[in-house]
Amino acid sequence: MLSLTMILVLLGCGVVAGFLAGLLGVGGGLVIVPVIVGVLHASGLGGEHVQHLAVGTSLAVMVFTSFASVRAHHKKGAVNWAIVRGMAPAMVAGTLAGSLLAGLIPGQVLRCLFVVYAYVIGAQMFFAAKPVASRELPGFAGQSAAGSVIGVISSWVGIGGGSMSVPFMGWCNVPMHNAIATSAALGWPIALSGAIGYLISGWGAPGLPAGAVGFVYLPAMLALLVMTVLCAPLGARAAHSLPVAGLKKAFAVLMVVMATQMLLELLHHS
Fold first, then answer.
1. Which position among 31, 136, 138, 258 has the lowest Cβ density within 10 Å, counted as fewest Cβ atoms?
2. Is the whole-model pTM more than 0.90?
């Protein structure tokens, strides 16, 4: 079981992840996954399934946190539900397929995918690189294709997909405030289908710690869930008074540092 110290680490991670999610509009998965990996390693739990447990638990946490975000954006009338209807079915299919397939992917490979993704998104945030709005939103087939790709990648990294869906919608001339709100709405079906997929793919897997349901580790999920739900609104309010552009660069550096630490551990154990 987790020690009191490890529980406190998870609670602290929930504070940071929730606050940053509200402040910067980024999902907490890029913070949560490395911390869960570190906590499980330090506790001697999870064995070869540490990365699977971290990703599955991250998605399970987002089922609850993203739902609260969707409600807030919907009340402001900012969600483009036509885009949600166009992209969500394929996103759900891609996320579910990816999370079921994840049970067959070695944990080291999943960790490599996370490291690469964190480096790419860290660079994109640090340099504020955005695709130029140069086309219109594609039809149902195009939205489905984009949704399925975003869903699969999200399922392997443990995120809600906003770091991909927001740039995609911006590229297609969707106003930024609508893109962010619509991305939040798309994050909930990604999180739900991903969590279900990791629960199924990890069911009966050997070496799982007590408290794990499939590849979802309930003690970590509960500790993170409480703090992310409490702190996300604080971050959203702080966004109006803090230098968000500078904080995005700081967050990008944090992501690169965490990704580098994971990379060094991968090289050490290879």
1. 136
2. yes
